[in-house]
Write a structure and sequence with these properties.
- One of its GO terms (molecular function) is long-chain fatty acid transporting porin activity.
- This protein is mainly beta.
- It has one domain: Outer membrane protein transport protein (OMPP1/FadL/TodX) (Porin, Beta Barrel).
- The chain is 6% helix and 44% strand.
- The longest helix has 15 residues, at 18-32.
- The relative contact order is 0.20.
Amino acid sequence: MKRVQSTSLNSAKTPLNPLKKLSFLSIIGCALMLPSAASASPFEMYGAGGRASAMAGAQTASAEGAAAIFYNVGSLAHSEPGVSGGLTVGLNRSRILLMNRPLGYDIPDLGGYSPAIPSGMTKYERRDTTDVDNLYVLTLGGVTSFGIKDLRAGLLLAMPTSGYVDANTHFADERERIFSNQLHFTLTDQRLRRLDLEMGIAYKVADWISAGLGATFSPGTVMSTNVYLPNVGDQSDVDLNSQIDSESLWGLLAGVQVDFSEQLQFGLQYRSEVYFRIHGQNTIRVGNTGGKDTREIVQVLDWTPSYSPHSVSAGLAWTQGASKIMLDGRYERWSDYRNNHSKPTNFHDTISPRLGYEYSLPGKDDKPGNKLRAGLGWVPSPVPDQTGRTNYVDNDRAMASIGASYQLDAFGLPLEIDWALQLHVLMSRVTHKKIKASNPNCGADVDVICDEVPDDLINPRTGQPFEGTQGLQTGNPGFPGFTSGGWMGGVVVEVSWLP
């Protein structure tokens, strides 16, 4: 079956008026500055669709199909109507190896006067992180024109098979010793294990420019728990009620594609910051006074298990004969990053370059030919050296990808099969904690390795300082240092029906 593209996609290019261009681009630029919030997804790591994944995500000036909603919603206007479905498998062989703890820094057992749980009395032994789970994601996409020549609307969905959303949180400092007593990858694990639903609409404003707007959906949760503890001496006997409400957060996408000629295109896309948040409070009432109970404890809950920053991507696509080369740059505002407990960090902004290549093989019998693809990318880490109290673990990543596209007829249906293989090499990073001559006691504003047992802690029985509390005592899982690295792989398969 011969595939015929709509006339609007192949219309002749007219000369561009520079003032007209500037006017359109100024309007789009203003739209791109609008703020909002949305959701993170597996697309950030492994790409959206087989074509994009095979070219390391270098798609801002040349995105096709429903994947254009993620890379540049303005490019959606150039896509053929159709539907697609696929599977993404993320292989994870990343690791965090802890350095051996030196003697003399353990937290002593001071009985009932211990300000922190003594070393050796935690639930878990301090251990390496070598068992990060793989990721399995089902994807679905669709594009329609609604019968309007220059209009396209689309939907893009990613659904991890593990469920609608994973919401596991971790502390980045010494408090994590009480929970898992190990370190966790900050940006390449739990942050991506969540549903992503994106929608967009685009229009060819003129032969040389198309613009689009989109929205992303992110779930959120507001929870309140009321707890009644009749007898503080028996805390296993509690009465509990909860109120859990869901939130719907919609965020903005905006993009534009400019066709300077048949051979050269430029793309620009803005994506708002993206996060999933759980917040609310616990209200605990203790005992029974026979009248109004005034012994009430209120605990504030605020978690952000998944966060991605505002980003702006710009790209060029150049076609010469059967070859197409795509070059992208992506700016991400990580300085606004909030950790699992919704606290600010000192991350820095990054710029990530991507390079993609596509070669179109000759077709037969007026049918489109198959395509070969490859890509390279560099993703710098926004996380500064963790020489102090926190243990945010992240690495620079070097990306390489290959893939192909095949055209075939199946039972009279014109199908396209795209596949991609990716390799992400996590550049090895060695972290050594800095010990000061006098480490401060742990407190909210302390960012260096802190002393969990104050040197001047007084034994109330003797009126003298406890023995063995002088100097630094810390149970920080990242002390005295750690090494992170390894690799991650992606396998993407997508089937599209383009009638």
